[in-house]
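Researcher: I'd like a candidate sequence for this fold, 219 residues long. If you have to choose between options at a position, lean toward the conservative one.
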């Protein structure tokens, strides 16, 4: 099982650090089926005993991602809020973030968390979060989606503070070269970190440590 960071830069991107004394907000975006909800669930299970957490999920018409997280009991149910965007997912996380910002601020007011995870609805490689909504962003892609995806770049792959290449266990089954994916990601990401993981089948220490580091900078 392959787990690695191309560059162990745990501090995040070049934009401002999260403000001390307030919840760190991390956005998690990526295409449909890449494993965003599974990643949110895994982070909650690992970190819930050491950090106060809350989650906002986005779906266009349903609350399926939030419902899944509640069924899995990754957090107390009232710490998980669902936003139904009614529009393209990137609109609600980048162009008009009002609904997401309201959901985040409501959770912050009620629970005073250390960390809020904001999961985007499934979108394409152009999806990015507004830094008016979040402090850091993770972009997730699926190995089974093709090993040419990192090479194609796009704002999500190239600009995210952390790129997660998920489902590397499927690489041999679909003919995807995960080493090439890592090399291509390194070329387009200008030194920002990339983690190759299998969220559902193995621990994800690289991602967990990166998230911990984002919370520590506000302590």
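Model: Candidate sequence:
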């Amino acid at each position: 099982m392959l787990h690695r960071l191309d560059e162990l830069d745990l501090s995040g991107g070049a934009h401002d650090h999260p403000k001390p004394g307030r919840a760190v907000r991390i956005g998690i975006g990526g295409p449909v089926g890449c494993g965003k909800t599974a990643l949110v669930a895994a982070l909650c299970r690992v970190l819930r005993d050491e950090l106060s957490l809350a989650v906002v999920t986005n779906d266009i018409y349903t609350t399926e991602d939030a419902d899944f997280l509640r069924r899995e009991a990754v957090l107390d149910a009232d710490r998980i809020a669902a936003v139904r965007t009614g529009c393209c997912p990137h609109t609600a996380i980048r162009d008009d973030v009002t609904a997401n910002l309201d959901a985040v601020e409501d959770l912050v007011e009620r629970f005073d968390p250390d960390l809020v995870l904001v999961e985007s609805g499934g979108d394409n490689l152009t999806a990015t979060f507004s830094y008016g909504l979040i402090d850091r962003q993770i972009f997730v892609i699926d190995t089974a989606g093709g090993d040419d995806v990192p090479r194609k770049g796009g704002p999500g792959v190239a600009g995210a503070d952390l790129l997660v290449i998920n489902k590397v266990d499927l690489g041999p089954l679909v003919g995807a070269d995960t080493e090439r994916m890592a090399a291509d990601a390194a070329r387009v990401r200008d030194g920002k970190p990339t983690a190759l993981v299998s969220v559902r089948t193995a621990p994800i220490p690289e991602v967990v440590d990166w998230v911990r580091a984002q919370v520590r900078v506000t302590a």
